[in-house]
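User: Hey, my collaborator sent me this sequence without any context and asked if I could get a structure. I don't really work with proteins. Can you help?
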Amino acid sequence: MTTLPSEARVAYTPSGRLGIVAWVVMLLSSLLPVIFFKELLGADTAWVFWVRVGMLAALIGAATFLQALRPLRGFFAAILVIFVAEWILYDGIGKLDGWQAVFAAPGATFFVSMLGNQLLRVGGAVAMIGALLAMRLRRKDFFLTVGNLKAPIEPVRWLGFPKRDAWTRFGGQWGVYITLGTLVFLFLAGRPSLTAFMQAAPMLPGVLLLAAMNAFGEEMTYRAPLLATLEGTVGSRQALWIAALFFGIEHYYGVPYGVVGVLLASFLGMILSKAMVETRGFFWAWFIHFLQDVAIFAFMAIGSIVPGG
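Assistant: No problem. I've predicted the 3D structure and written it out in C-alpha cell form, which is a compact way to encode the shape of the chain:
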C-alpha cells in the first residue's frame, strides 16, 4: 500500500524472517497478552510487564551478539524504552506525594488534573527522543521534522484516493473526517446539554494545549520510533502496519471498548503512520491526531462540569 521515495527505500531486504520476528515481538510486547490472560482466563496480569521487559532485554542482548538479529536491535530497544519510561513516569514520579498534591488534589480543576498526565506523556516522548539520539539516529531519521507537507500520497483505492493526491488534500480531509466521526460518537454517547457546552467554553485554551501535548507525546512515543527502527529492516509497508496494530491493540480498554476500539485505533494508526512515511516528517500525523484530541478533551472538559455548578 505504501512505498518510500526511491532515495529512501530499504537497502536491506531479508528473506522475511526478520519481518516475522518483528511481528511476533510486537504482538508479545503489546497489550495482547494482558487481554488474553485477563479476559479469557481471569488471571492477574501484573507479572506480564516484567516478562515483557525481560524478554526485550534478552532480545537486545541476543541482537548484540547475533548478526542475524542485529538489524532489529533498535526496534527491541525502542519498545523497551516505552515500557521502562512509562514505569518510571507513571508508577514512580506520578505517584509521588508532591506530584499528587499538585495534580491530583481534591478540588483540582479539570485542566490541572489533565496537565499532570500530559506532562508525564511528554516526558515519555522526551525520553524516547533521547534514546533514539543515543542510537545515533538523526532527527529526520525518526521524523522529528516538519517534512514535505505537499508530498504525494501512495494511492489507496479503498479509501477513495486512487490517484497520487498531495498530502495537503489527503491530510486535511482525513483530519476533518476522523474528527467529525469522533465528535458524532462522543455526542451520541454523552448527549451534553447546551448549558454544559457554554460552561465548558472558557476551558478551550486548556483543551487545545492538552490536545497538542497528547498528540506530540503519543506520536513520538508509539509511532515514530517503531517506524524509524523498522523501516530499514522490514520495509516501509510492514513497518507501517506493525506500528498501526501496536497502537490499535493498546486501545482495547479505551473508548470505544474492545475489538471495535482496536479496529478504529488501528485504522487511525495506519493513516498516521502513512503520513510519517510518505512526508518523511511529523506534521500531518501530529495535526490529524491533534484535531481528534481536541474533540476528545473538549468532551472530557464538558464531562468534568458538575451539573448545576
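In plain terms: The two ends are 51 Å apart (CA to CA). You can pass these C-alpha cells on to your collaborator as they are.
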